[in-house]
Specification:
The chain is an alpha/beta fold. Helices cover about 20% and strands about 35% of the residues. It has two domains: about 5-95, Elongation Factor Tu (Ef-tu), domain 3; about 110-255, Nucleotide-binding domain of ferredoxin-NADP reductase (FNR) module (Rossmann fold). Strands 10-9-8-7-11-12-15 form a seven-stranded mixed β-sheet, with helices on both faces. It has a six-stranded antiparallel barrel with strand order 1-2-5-4-3-6. Strands 13-14 form a two-stranded antiparallel sheet. It is globular and about 50 Å long. Bound molecules: FE2/S2 (inorganic) cluster. FE2/S2 (inorganic) cluster (FES) binds next to loops.
Length: about 260
């Protein structure tokens, strides 16, 4: 798949909660080659950091030619990125990585995300809604204040959420949500992204029930193009680069 290195126009920078922002970037070209689960690699020149930073694609608006990203402040690079103003140009390589396998019309789909791992699941929910009328989303967070863009998910399917402190939705983890506990076997495709313990639990359950499942892995990345080997994941078919052969892997490939 072709990749582009371009300066995209920052149209919007919106703070969602204390350390999460949504950035909307506009390209000059058609964006129909970007799929859910793929990511972009951004050079944050103002931060004075040499390496690019990877960010999952949160949404794509093909008509407006925009890519939305969720940015959580982790370090200097992401912090500086959240201070960029509309009108600035951002150096982006896109689209990178292998995204989710798109479902069929007859599929019943469950998307499960937690923390900042919700980012690729929004675009996936939107695209899945085009393929299937049967989409459910379960999102988990520490508390109500940590939930991001909750209202947007409701546009594309049945929505359930969990918070560790019980401030909204089911008290506990995504795996405590009744829809997950009681109806998991009714789904025939599960897609997940988020903290490792959460994804491991979901992958284990999916394999046990022989349900198709894909997980989007988070990994430290440097080059983003399969050269530096700093993102290698051990799989059932050998060591694979998360940046080029992932970040999405089938549950059967994971050695968790
Ligand atoms: S980030 Fe360099 S090989 Fe994946």
């Amino acid at each position: 798949m072709k990749k582009y290195n371009e300066k995209l126009l920052l149209l919007e920078n919106k703070q969602l909660n204390h350390d999460n922002y949504r950035l909307v970037l506009q390209a000059e070209r058609d964006l129909s080659e970007i799929f859910p689960g793929q990511f972009v690699h951004i050079k944050i020149e103002k931060a004075g950091v040499l390496l690019r930073r990877p960010f999952s694609v949160f949404d794509v608006n093909k008509e407006k030619r925009t890519i939305s990203l969720l940015i959580k402040i982790f370090g200097k690079g992401s912090k500086v990125l959240t201070t960029c103003k509309p009108g600035e140009k951002i150096d982006v390589i896109y689209p990178l990585g292998k995204g989710f396998t798109m479902p069929d019309k007859k599929d019943k789909i469950l998307l499960v995300g937690g923390g900042v791992g919700v980012a690729p699941l929004f675009f996936m929910a939107k695209m899945s809604g085009i393929y299937s009328k049967n989409v459910s989303v379960i999102i988990g967070a520490k508390n109500q204040g940590e939930h991001i863009s909750v209202e947007d998910y409701k546009l594309f399917g049945n929505f359930y959420f969990a918070t560790e402190d019980g401030s909204v939705g089911t008290k506990g983890f995504v795996t405590d949500v009744p829809e997950y506990i009681d109806h998991l076997s009714e789904y025939n495709k599960i897609y997940t992204c988020g903290p490792s313990p959460m994804m491991k639990a979901i992958v284990k359950e999916a394999l046990k029930r022989d349900i198709f499942c894909e997980a989007s892995l988070e990994s430290k990345m440097a080059c983003g193009i399969g050269i530096c080997l700093c993102c290698v994941e051990k799989t059932t078919t050998g060591n694979r680069c998360v940046c080029t052969e992932g970040p999405v892997f089938n549950a059967k490939e994971l050695t968790w």
